[in-house]
């Protein structure tokens, strides 16, 4: 019997210095190690991204403590955060500022009843969602303000899956540090692999409510694509003309503040 093996589907050896081995939290990654356009690279141990933290085990809490994280920044809405609360850990400041105005449904039945799933089947669902939250968003303003203060680092930011809201927040942090758009897209797409268990569980749940064809269409719609993040970068260019103008007008990050942020978070290779 021959088996087709998908390369890299669950083999994370190439992410060993990035993906942290949490038992009860998916997609917990260090944003360190990425090269910047001025030839430096992002330091490890300062900036992290993850999915929801509610499943943290005691062993996970030990690992978390060892990372020296001082700030947890949660993009989820009030209902999401209440249904699956973040741990309150000694010496860690918990911040919660929703990145999306509407509450995101917390379970599949609620998604179906609210019509959220139907919206998700539209071809440009994710692009539209990102552009809706991209500009003038108090959550991302607070994120960048928090990240610019060295006393708040290490900083972990997260949502439910750590892919969409957290993907946009990570893009902004990495843009500010001078990481290329292509590298940011590569980081964004890692979530397709790290969230495979979450997607499989969702697929199994959907089978109870949806036809096989609808389920397949929905799982396909949930896959992250480079075009989605590229559309966000195009919107920044169209609206602001440059990354520098975007950072200054959206986040008050002028050249001096950006240099300070980079000097804290980057190292010479």
Quickly list its features.
269 residues; alpha/beta; Protein-Tyrosine Phosphatase, Chain A; 5-stranded mixed β-sheet; two-stranded antiparallel ribbon; 14 helices; 7 strands; 9% strand; globular; disordered N terminus
Question: Can you offer a commentary on this structure?
Answer:
The chain is an alpha/beta fold and 269 residues long. Helices cover 48% and strands 9% of the residues. The protein has 14 helices and 7 strands. It has helices at 58-66, 78-83, 108-114, 116-120, 125-134, 138-148, 165-176, 181-189, 191-194, 196-206, 212-222, 226-240, 243-251, 255-265; strands at residues 29-30, 40-42, 47-50, 71-74, 93-96, 155-158, 266-268. The chain has a 5-stranded mixed β-sheet, covered by helices on one side. The protein has a two-stranded antiparallel sheet with strand order 2-7. Helix 2 (78-83) links the parallel strand 4 (71-74) and strand 5. The radius of gyration is 18 Å and the shape is globular. 34% of the residues are buried.
């Amino acid at each position: 019997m021959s088996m087709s093996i998908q390369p890299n589907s669950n083999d994370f050896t190439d992410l060993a210095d990035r993906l942290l081995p949490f038992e009860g939290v998916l997609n917990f990654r260090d944003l360190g190690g990425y090269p910047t356009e001025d030839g430096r690279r992002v330091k490890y141990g300062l900036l992290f991204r993850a999915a929801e933290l509610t499943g943290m085990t005691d062993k996970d809490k030990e690992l978390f403590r060892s990372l020296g994280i001082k700030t947890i920044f949660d993009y989820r809405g009030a209902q999401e955060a209440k249904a699956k609360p973040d741990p309150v850990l000694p010496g860690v400041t918990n911040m919660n500022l929703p990145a999306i105005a509407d509450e995101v449904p917390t379970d599949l039945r609620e998604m179906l009843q609210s019509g959220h799933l139907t919206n998700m089947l539209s071809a440009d669902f994710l692009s539209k969602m990102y552009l809706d939250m991209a500009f003038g968003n108090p959550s991302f303003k607070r994120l960048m303000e928090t990240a610019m203060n060295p006393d708040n680092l290490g900083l972990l930011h997260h949502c439910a899956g750590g892919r969409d809201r957290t993907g946009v927040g990570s893009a902004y942090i990495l843009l500010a540090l001078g990481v290329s758009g292509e590298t940011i897209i590569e980081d964004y797409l890692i979530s397709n692999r790290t969230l495979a268990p979450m997607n499989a569980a969702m697929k199994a749940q959907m089978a109870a409510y949806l036809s096989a064809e609808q389920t397949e269409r929905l799982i396909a719609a949930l896959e992250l694509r480079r075009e989605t993040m590229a559309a966000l970068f195009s919107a920044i260019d169209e609206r602001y003309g440059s990354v520098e103008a975007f950072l200054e007008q959206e986040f008050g990050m002028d050249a001096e503040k950006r240099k300070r942020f980079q000097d804290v978070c980057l190292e010479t290779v």
